[in-house]
Each structure stands twice: as C-alpha cells, then as structure tokens.
Design brief:
The structure is a homodimer. By secondary structure, chain A is mainly alpha-helical. Chain A contains nine helices and no strands. Chain A starts with 10 loop residues before the first helix and ends in a 9-residue tail after the last helix.
Chain lengths: ~180, ~180
Amino acid sequence: MSSGGPDSITIQSITREADIGLGTFYNYFKNRDEVIDAVIIEEVETLGNRLDHLTEGMTDAAEIYSFSLRHLMNTAVSDPVWGWMVVRLGIAQQGLLSQLGPRAARDLQFGVDTGRFQITNIAIATDMTFGSLLAVMRNYLKSDRRVNPSNPYAENLLRMVGLSPKEAAEIANRPLPKLPD
Amino acid sequence: MSSGGPDSITIQSITREADIGLGTFYNYFKNRDEVIDAVIIEEVETLGNRLDHLTEGMTDAAEIYSFSLRHLMNTAVSDPVWGWMVVRLGIAQQGLLSQLGPRAARDLQFGVDTGRFQITNIAIATDMTFGSLLAVMRNYLKSDRRVNPSNPYAENLLRMVGLSPKEAAEIANRPLPKLPD
C-alpha cells in the first residue's frame, strides 16, 4: 500500500504477501475495499490511542484540542499515502468518525465543562472538526505540498470553539510535543 | 431523481424520459454518474447565483457569510434528495468547490478587507467552510432530522472567522431573508 498506493492492491497481492489461500481471504473479507478499510480503521485507532497518551495529563482543553488536530493533520503531511487513503475512501463517514469522533467529543466537552470553550452543540462541532480536517487534508495532498496547513487549521478551529483570535494564534503555534509510540 | 433517489436512475430511464437514443446519450456523457454530476453542478450553480442576488447590496461581510451558509444548509434540510446527492457523490471535491468555492473566497476576502474577519489564509478557511458543511449535512440527513443545524453551523463558522461568541450568536440567529428565484 505504501509503495504502490491503494490502487496497486489486489486480492491476489494480499494473499500472496500473506501466504494464505483465496478461500481464507474470503472467510474474513468480502472484497478488496473491506481490507483497506480495516487497515485504515486500525491505523486511525492506533493514532487515537497515541493522542490519548500524549494529552493524558494535560489540563488545558484548548491545548489538548490544538495538539490533537495538528498531529492528525501532520500524519497526512508526513505520510501522504495514509492521508490519501483516509480522504479517498470516504473514511470520514466511517473510521475517522467512529474511532476519533468520540474522542473529539470528549475533548470538546472537557473544554465546555472547564469554561474554556463556548459551543452549544458538541455533535455539530465534532462533525465540523472532521469535515474540515478532510477538506483541508485533501486540498493539501492535491497541492504542491509546500505549506503545512496544520497550524492554521488548528487556529481556525480554536476560534470556532470560542477562543479569541489572539489566543487561538498563540496556542496553535506552540511547540508541538512528539507523539508517544 | 427526486422520486426514486439517485440509485433509481439508469441510462435507460434517462433516454426514455428524454426520448433520445442511447447513441445520443453517449455523445454527451460517458456514464450515468456523469449525468448526475452535471445535474448537481447545475443546481449548485443556480443556488450560487441566487445567493449572489440575495447578498448583492449587503455591506456586512458577517451577515453575507452567515445568510449564505444558512441557505446552503437549509437547501439540504428542505430538499433531502438534493442534500444526499451533494453528500454522496463526493461533489465536495468537484461541483461544490468549483461553483461555490470562488464565491466563498470572495466573501471571506471581503470580510478581511473590511476588517470584519481575522483569517490569514482564505483558501484554508474556504476548504473548512465546505468540508464542515458536508459533514454536518451528512449527519443531519442520517439523523431523525428534527433539529435544523443551519444556525449553529453558521454560528460556529462566524466564530471561526474571528467574531466574538456573542456577536456570532446574534448574527447567526437573525431572521433569514428569502432567496430570490
């Protein structure tokens, strides 16, 4: 997948690499796209776990939200194949929202509870977080990829949840701590 | 399309309704999806023109942006088939952005020029406007459809472009003028 892109994958190439028979393949998956979806969902889940570890001890909801958003976008920047798969397979509607949606909702709720965010509808803010993630990711991947959109993306969303433009800019541009393995 | 949904459309049903031959069909379109795309792009363009007429004389960028966003979302609320087609056909990546993207960029630039908006990157803000539109639209259509998300959607985006939470709430809930025909 990372060498030839998602289109290079065939059921034959999977069974050959995994050294299993076609029958075994069809015991688990209906078609090629189901495998790819499963891979992406697993990768997104792993990323979600790493973000959880990163932000575990943090107390400022704005910082938690900003760091998570920037790492999400950066994953597509540093691994465009991953980015394309997330964008192309419309995983927005499935994996991304199912694995990361509840985490984002939790972080947004924490911001509301601590008086940091001013949103009245967590579900709509969650949808907007991921819908805009995918749109920005897609156009980054289609572009010449010279400008990493992570910080302006996070800055815009920090304003969306109610921070002042000045504070949003400051927080979105803080040094980004590394993701734990 | 409006009676049976996009899946009910076949090339045969189109040529029968339009009373043309298959050969004529293939002179203009490669396949079924190309026709549906063309219909949606035309409808989106019409909507864009109506929004242009509505906001033509207005001087407050925040009001222009808010009215346009609410009408866009309301179109899916009042015509779910239209909404589903826009969402399902991934028109985000094509028609919506090609027809409405430049209009949104123009309105956002007007907000920056008049000191009303505080965004540094118009392209990213445009992507986020439409990416979040599609995500909210999709989840509205999938839901029980009891709560129209238009106003909270516009309110969130008004904050995103830099308005204070108080002003964003006020503007997003102003009476919405009707779209001209």
